[in-house]
Amino acid sequence: MPPRRWKLWSLPRPALGYVLGVDAVAVTITALALSSTMSGERPGVSPSEWTAFAVLAVASILHLESARGIERRREMAANTSPYTNLKSLWVFAGLLLLPLSLVVALVVVSYGYSWIRVYGRTIAHRKVFSASTFILASAAAAAVLQAGGLLTEPRVPTSAWTLLVVLAAATTWWLVNFALVIGAILLAAPDATARGALGDLSEQLVVVAGLGLGVAVAGLQASYPWIVPILMVTVLTLHRDLLLPQFRRAAGTDVKTGLATPSYWANAVPVELARAETLRSTVGLLMLDLDRFKEINDTYGHPAGDRALKAVGESVRAEVRQGDLVARVGGDELAVLLPGASETEVLEIAERIRDRLTTLTVSVETASDTTAVITGVPASFGAAVYPEVAETMDQLVLAADNALLTAKRAGRNKIVAARPNPPAVGSDQPVGDV
Q1: Does the keyword Disulfide bond apply (predicted)?
Q2: 98-153: pLDDT as tens digits
Q3: CATH number at residue 390
Q4: Domain of 44?
Q5: Are 36 and 42 in contact, with CB atoms under 8 Å apart?
Q6: What is the DSSP string of 347-378?
Q7: Which residue in 19, 154, 302, 331 has the most C-beta neighbors within 10 A?
Q8: Are residues 150 and 284 in the same domain?
């Protein structure tokens, strides 16, 4: 792919400047670390440090290779929230055992391997930025270690004070890396909310666990290096247990939009209906179909249509509540499951989504390698609420679909709510009784 077509250049101008600025600072830190090592400001790299570097590099590569499938699917699902991983384990262990120049080399090895084997070469600029955040976080943590008196490697905790210093360094590493990633998300997706960009904070426990394991790996490598391979079994088990819920969500994620797949959504609906029945609660359902979406594909090409569809999905997710489920159930048809929502709440959310899509602006690459701007991607909506309108999943979906067809026939870009069916004539229940 020629440089002018790199996805990096499609970022909004503020985000592009931010990403390039972080990358430039990381390059500067790398140059300073290398010059410090080569100029003799610190003792040269010792054989034990080279050994530790080799052990950590090999362990990092084996770890990435063993988790390659799960990590690829997890990153696909991380569109507008931080993507957490356990690379911090090996990098922070290196920070306690190695000079900063070798820590930078370890980061490069880890992310270079990820780019080639795990994530794919089409998102190289994201891997460069992620590696840069690791380098900046490592430099900040190294400064904390030096300020606390841990001047030479290995810098593993051997007393209460050194433990506090290492914990402060780990906290600094996490904060710097997290803040840099959040800044990029907010600038790259102007429509993203701060709450959405923060993601699920409980997932940051993955990073915390990685930093803690990094301290353990560093201590073992410094004193009992032959135990490190045994610890790898623990690392892989924790990787599975900590990230399996994310993997399950990723496995049910549509690659093009980041929304739930039809099968994932179809499994979630009966679960929510059963929960609502137990709690005597409600479940709202919105079905929306993009109006004249075929015209976008025919005019600009299918890649442009995919980009527009992804922007629509992001807009819909930005307007629903936390805990609501947005799925792509057809080519250009989406469904929103709203547990506990009343009809009034469902219609309010639908109106917010409708207004947002009507004014949505999307920049797309056309088939002729030019950039076009699509203004407005309107949709028609059908709404239904359990148990007011339906008692089963099939009935609920059918009611929402029928309301959607009514909205289409009424002129498109409209919201129609399904109404409860009246009792059959001759039934024992009088019409109008509550």
Answers
A1: no
A2: 999 999 999 999 888 887 776 655 567 778 888 999 999 999 999 999 999 888 87
A3: 3.30.70.270
A4: 3-251
A5: yes
A6: HHHHHHHHHHHHT-EEEEE-TTS-EEEEE---
A7: 19
A8: no
Residue 336: strand pairing partners = 286, 326
Question: Which residues 6+ apart lie within 8 Å of 54 measured at CB?
Answer: none
- Annotation says 306 is catalytic: no
Distance CA 185, CA 170 (A): 23
SS3 385: strand
Q: Which two tokens stand for residue 197?
A: 């960009």
Q: Are 118 and 76 in contact (CB under 8 A)?
A: no
> Which of 289, 284, 308, 285 lies closest to 414, judged by CA?
289
Kindly give the interhelix angle for 87-97 and 47-66, rounded to the nearest 10 degrees. 180
Q: Phi and psi (nearest 5°) for 415?
A: -120, 125
Which stretch of 138-142, 190-194, 414-418 has the lowest confidence by average pLDDT?
A: 190-194
Using the structure block, give the residue that is written with the tokens 């709690």: 279
Q: Which residues on neighbouring strands pair with residue 326, listed in sequence order?
A: 336
Q: State the angle between helix axes of 87-97 and 160-188 in degrees (0 to 180), rounded to the nearest 10.
A: 130
Find the catalytic residue in 332, 355, 401, 433: 332
Cis, bond preceding 420 (omega within 30 deg of 0): no
Query: Mapping DSSP to helix (H, G, I), strand (E, B) and coil, where does residue 338 land?
Result: strand
CB 172 within 8 A of CB 138: no
In whole angstroms, what is the distance from residue 380 CA to residue 262 CA?
A: 19
Q: CA 191, CA 293: separation in Å to the nearest integer?
A: 22
- Whether 311 contacts 362, CB under 8 Å: yes
- Within-domain flag for 86: yes
Domain membership of residue 428 (yes or no) is: no
Determine the Cα–Cα distance for residues 54 and 105; give it in Å rounded to an integer.
11
Three-state secondary-structure class, residue 286: strand
Q: Does one domain contain both 90 and 218?
A: yes
